[in-house]
Design a protein that fits this description.
Lysozyme-like; six-stranded mixed β-sheet; 11 strands; about 30% helix; binds zinc ion; Cu_amine_oxidase-like_N
Length: about 240
Amino acid sequence: MKIIKDLLTINEYSRPGLKLNKVQGVVVHWVANPNTSAKANRNFFENRRNGKSGYGSAHYIIDLDGSVILAIPPEEVAYHVGAKSYRSEAIKRLGTYPNGNTLGIECTHVDWNGKMTPETYETLVLLCADLCKKYNLNPLTDLYRHYDITGKLCHKWFVDHPTEWETFKQKVKEQMGGNMDKIAANKEQVKFNLLGKNYSFEGLIKDGKTYVTARDLLEVLGFTVGWEAQSKTVIVKKKD
Ligand SMILES: [Zn+2]
């Protein structure tokens, strides 16, 4: 995934330079202008600084070719979901000013239905997976369409095709799972001889690496294995 830093100049209308609070969601948009490039949309945001075309911007803009322009640093506020009123469900989850704790991604598209190129779609999956990992977000609950927050018909493709939206979130989840999901799907018995004793564990041998669970291996070596969910840490102790 290619991300090109092409930041807007700080200005009242599209890059206020305010610090973003803790990121609690990622909002997906369409640019609502078929076959325009990420660069053209970035420049549209930039030109808002003269005050003649209102407020609005986003952090990321995905091009038709799948490359990404970073227009606003992810530590700063962008004006992508501001509205006079918000859906009550969104207020419950994000508070009364969602611009203050969400990142915005604009997607280019090829027609007025909002259909994206395969390259744009693929990058959207990768970018959302990266951001969910970085900010510890759940792709099934913390990814939003602009529509989910304000009711605006945006990203139109995903509003008109709600099952595509569900599929998309699942793809982000799979992307975050990376190899581990594939391992679970292809598991086999892996034989070990540990200090002279034979064992067989469910696992996988792939690309010169042997995968088994830490629990299986450590428990037969005489340790107890626990899991601390909050810090996502495996806790290994000697058996009493
Ligand atoms: Zn939008």
